[in-house]
Structures are given as C-alpha cells and as structure tokens.
Amino acid sequence: MTNQLGNNISSGMAYVQDRIEGKPSNLYTLDLSTGKAAKVGEIGFEVSDIMFVENRLYGIAGKKESSTTQLIEIDRKTGQGKLIGNIGYIVVGLSYNVANKTLYGASADELIEINTQTGRGRPALTVADQDYNCGEIAFNPNGKAYITLIGSNRKKLLATCDLNSKEKPKIIGDIGYPNLASMKFLGDTLYGVTGSFFNLGKDGELLKIDTQTGAATLIGMTAPISRWAGMAIYQEITDKIPVAPKPVEPVKPGIPDLITNITFDSFERDPKRDIVCLTPVRSIVRREEEITIIRKVRKEEVVDASPACPVNTTEVSK
Question: Are the C-beta atoms of residues 297 and 275 closer than 8 Å to each other?
C-alpha cells in the first residue's frame, strides 16, 4: 500500500530509500523526531542514495554488476523513478551544494559534478587515495563539504574537503558507525541512517553526527527497521536574491505629479510669450465627473497677432 502525498512539502521533511540487492528500492518518508517511516512507493530502480535539488528529488541507481551509475528523478508523491542518463562513473553518495548550485556524487576516490539535465558526470576533486575510499557526502548550508572515508580497518571517518583546493581532506574523527549509509544536513545538524552492508553494523539506525568531533550518537531505531541506503531532507531556500527597486522617474520640470495639484503657478510662464487656458473635459474612463486641464499655448515670435485660447476655454491671468 502506498502513501499518496499532496503537492505541498514542508521544510525539514525527510525521505529515505532502502536497498536490497537485486530488488527495486522503495521510497519512504521519515519523521526525524520519532524515526517512524511511511512507505510512499516503489522506485523501480536499485538506488544507492537520494538528494533534493530545490524541490526535485533525484537518485543514483545501478546494479552491483553495473560499470556505471545512472541518475534518475523520483516522483516524491508516488515514489516512481524516471531515468535521466548515465553518469559515466560508479557513484555511491549524492549531495547538492546550494552555494554553487551543483549536484555532486561521491565515487571511491573523487567527487563528481553531475549535470541534472543529462545525468553526465565529470571529475571535480580527488578526495581519497590508496589508504581510503570515499563513501558519503553532504554539504552544510554554507557549502562546506563533509565526506566519509573508510580504510582497511573498516572504521568510517568524517572529514571535510575544500572544493577550491587540491589539498587532502582534513579528517575530523571516527563516526563510530561503519554502517552509516547516507548523511544529510538539516540546517547545521547532520543526520544519518544506516544499512548493514558488507555485514557492518545494524540496519535501521537514525543518527546525529557531531561535525566538530565526527562522533555519531544514536537517536533511535526506525520503524520499520530497513536496510537504508539513501536519505534526503527537503529545505526551503531562504536566501532570496534581492530585487533592486525600480528607479523613480524624476518629475519633469514645470509638470506637477498629480493632476489634483495643478494650479496656475505650477507652470513657468513668461507673460510676454505665454498664456494659460482652462477647459472642462469629460473623463474617458467610464466616469461622468468633470476635471480641469490646464493648457499652455506658446506664441511664435514671428506672428504679429496676439495669442488666444481655443474655443470653449478660458484664459487665466494673475
């Protein structure tokens, strides 16, 4: 039975997806405070991780024997996945950097930039060497990258890396849960879920990870307890691009800004050359009230006759 969701999605709403080898993954919503998970539907792909790019939910999919990973888009109301394209790399972690508006995947030793239109990936940064493999990736709201590294001792370490530097990642500390399968930020808090892959640890644990020490603490077990592989948390984008106010056009000299403010002295007037005339006219906006318009007539110096106001107008003088 599926849980049909409406069109609305609130900030802080979490999704998780399971992965059982050889079977299509299922999408769930997850309450981060209680650990309760509600099934949305079958994705139709074997999915390793999921991530929101603004309000669109993406996933990375591929079977164990696949030589490359696929990018898919997931309907969060039904769980159904749709293929976008091959990334060209084997990617196990997925995260979106709001700071540079780029979707990244984590391969064994590199971070991969992923084009959300085509699915195609390209190397962005080397983050691991022969001593470690990279697994999960998450960006905090400021765009700082956190990754996990796992070595031959099977300990999973939290580390940070600079996308603009070729320096090696800086290791923070042991997470304490080698079965961590996905981690994502909600504000400044880093959450994680576990899956007993490679017989490491337990399924179905919900964690909170200290970004200062790397150590994770157990919030509780999810219900149901599933082999979670991916996690995504929707967050509203609050940093709006400021819109410059429209410039106020200066009032032209001698012309008042409101017709109700028009007076004889609203216009510059040279008594030797100008006269001012008043005339009542009908409004053309379906109203019957009459308004007063001031009209200025300029005398041409080459004309001998004195200027005169048009018919049905009244000359105004001081």
Answer: yes
**Cα–Cα distance list, 135 to 49, 248, 252, 258 (Å):** 11, 54, 66, 67
In order of 16, 197, 275, the CA distances from 226 in angstroms are 10, 12, 90
Extended beta strands in 63-196, E state: 70-74, 81-86, 93-97, 102-106, 110-114, 121-126, 133-139, 145-150, 156-161, 170-174, 180-186, 189-194
Domains defined for the chain, CATH in brackets: 14-233 (2.120.10.80), 259-316 (no CATH)
Cis peptide before 141 (omega within 30 of 0): no
| Tokens at 203, concatenated | 């399924």
Q: Which residue's structure tokens are 């309450």?
A: 31
pLDDT of residue 17: 98
What global pTM score does this model have? 0.72
Residue 34: C-alpha distances to residues 4, 13, 140, 221, 267 (Å)? 21, 13, 23, 9, 74
Q: Is 156 exposed, middle or buried (0-12, 13-18, 19+ CB in 10 A)?
A: buried
Distance CA 65, CA 45 (A): 14
- At 254-304, the pLDDT tens digits run 544 444 455 556 556 666 666 666 665 543 343 344 444 445 444 444 444
The burial of 43, by beta-carbon neighbours within 10 Å (0-12 exposed, 13-18 middle, 19 or more buried), is given as buried
Q: In the chain, what is the greatest distance between 2 CA atoms, to the nearest angstrom?
A: 109
- Residue the block writes with tokens 């009032």: 251
Distance separating alpha carbons of residues 87 and 72, to the nearest angstrom:
10
- DSSP state at residue 136: E
